[in-house]
Write a structure and sequence with these properties.
The protein is of the alpha+beta class. The chain has 2 domains: 169 residues, 2-Layer Sandwich (Ribosomal Protein S5, domain 2), CATH 3.30.230.10; 125 residues, 2-Layer Sandwich (Alpha-Beta Plaits), CATH 3.30.70. It is built from 9 helices and 13 strands. Strands 1, 2, 3, 4, 5, 6, 7, 8 and 13 form a 9-stranded mixed sheet that branches. Strands 10-11-9-12 form a 4-stranded antiparallel sheet. Bound molecules: (R)-mevalonate. The site of (R)-mevalonate has 13 residues, from helix 4 and helix 5. (R)-mevalonate binds next to helix 4 and helix 5.
Length: 313
């Protein structure tokens, strides 16, 4: 019986979450935390970790199988080091690793194809409003700049309806980030839908989206120069704008305030509504201790690991 394994990284969004859905730029970086998926042909029905595949519990895996697999039953095993609903890209890593393993099983594994098919699977699982930021970052790894226009380092572009996103490779500077997990589950689909309602109703929300885009754009040269004080200030500004947009959470605000005493700046990362924050710091231990003292779960992350990988046997 044929079998394949694939692994994909989680991510943090440094700048541009939510605004990227509306064509503004975003910068996302792969993490060293990863998800692994093994698929094997065989059995009487599709199974995930021994249980029958459930459209409710295994939506991302089901949508990947529905989109890519015409063969018989599959036995799927998953192993993830990325906390779920944490804003750290656990669902994108699961989609990418599942798609990677399915394509590997068919002898069609390629980074760009994985990114496209995983985005299709995620759009269908999330009832489709999001951008390809998370799935492309989990596929390519390193760092990815998403923009509404082409720049140097273009990887691929992805279109959905009227919107087209250009995904670019970005060199990752050796920065230390401390992640603080609130322990509150944030649901990306709900937060993205909430922002969509706000943007539809008010010009003010559209202005906030444009401001988030401006902040992300201004961070690109600062990252290249590793100008930590200026980057930290942009992070604080981005957090404030995301708070105005309604996607922060009191726990996120508290952890950011605590972390800032030992950091250049701090902001929520990903879709918000709970999930995680990040702080840019030269004092990771002090920053992590401050986050822990406020009840968060801190971890120091290495940025810019490799993207999706696969093997078969
Ligand atoms: C979630 O990690 C990032 C969002 O911008 C949604 C998306 O881009 O699909 C909130």
């Amino acid at each position: 019986m044929a079998a394949a394994r694939a692994s994909a990284p989680g991510k943090v969004i440094l700048f541009g979450e939510h605004a990227v859905v509306y064509g503004e730029p975003a910068i996302a970086v792969a993490l060293s935390l990863r998800t692994e998926v093994i698929v094997k042909e065989g059995g009487d029905q599709h199974r995930v970790n021994g249980a029958p595949l459930s459209p409710y519990h295994h939506a991302y895996i089901k949508d990947a199988i529905d989109g890519l697999w015409k063969g018989g039953p599959l036995d799927v095993r998953t192993d993830s080091r990325i906390p779920s609903a944490s804003g750290l890209g656990s669902s994108a890593a699961l989609s990418v690793a599942t798609v990677g393993a399915l394509l590997q099983l068919q002898g069609r594994f390629a980074e760009e194809l994985v990114a496209r098919e995983a985005y299709n699977a995620e759009v269908s699982a999330q009832k489709g409003r999001g951008s390809p930021t998370d799935t492309s970052t989990a596929s390519h790894g390193h760092a990815v700049l998403v923009d509404g226009q082409k720049r140097d380092g273009l990887l691929w572009d992805v279109q959905r309806g009227e919107r087209r996103w250009y995904l670019h490779h970005l060199d990752v500077p050796p920065l230390t980030l401390v992640v603080g997990h609130t322990g509150v589950r944030g649901r990306t689909a709900d937060e993205v839908a909430k922002v969509a309602r706000f943007v539809k109703r008010t010009g003010f929300a559209r202005e906030v989206i444009r401001d988030l885009g401006r902040v992300a754009r201004s961070a690109i040269p600062l990252l290249a120069r590793q100008d930590k004080p200026a980057l930290g200030q942009r992070m604080d500004e981005a957090h404030n704008l995301l708070r105005i947009l309604g996607v922060s959470h009191p726990r996120l605000d508290e952890l950011c305030d605590a972390a800032r005493k030992h950091a250049y700046g701090a902001k929520l990362t990903g879709s918000g509504g709970g999930g995680s924050m990040i702080a840019l710091t030269d004092q990771p231990e002090a920053c992590a201790a401050a986050i822990r003292k406020r009840g968060g779960t801190p971890f120091t992350v290495q940025l810019g690991g490799p993207g999706v990988s696969a093997s078969s046997w």
